[in-house]
Amino acid sequence: MKYILVITTTPTKKDAQNITQVILDKKLAACIQFLGPISSSYFWQGKIKITKEWLCLIKTKQSLYTRLESAIHAKHPYKIPEVLALPIIKGSDKYLSWLNGELK
Q1: pLDDT digits (tens, 9 = 90+) for 65-81
Q2: Per CATH, the architecture of 3-102 is what?
Q3: Cα–Cα distances in Å, from 32 out to 20, 29, 80, 98?
């Protein structure tokens, strides 16, 4: 597994933009999309919460995960931000070649 998709959510579009900028400035991902607002339902401190958030989809190399996670935590406003890495098991050769070339 060489490539991963990292997911995080933010409370505002501005937070998503700020995290995106830091990640790209540090060359920790080749591409980031953020979508929103989305509706999120979750438990927080024993209670059900329903909020609006922005979903960030971050494409990168697995070898950059630790640095990427640290960059997200440093800029993220949540006490415990969602940071999940999912394997990219297949992709078009041209896209994966581009992703690889951007992260050198």
Answers
A1: 999 999 999 999 999 99
A2: 2-Layer Sandwich (3.30)
A3: 7, 7, 21, 14
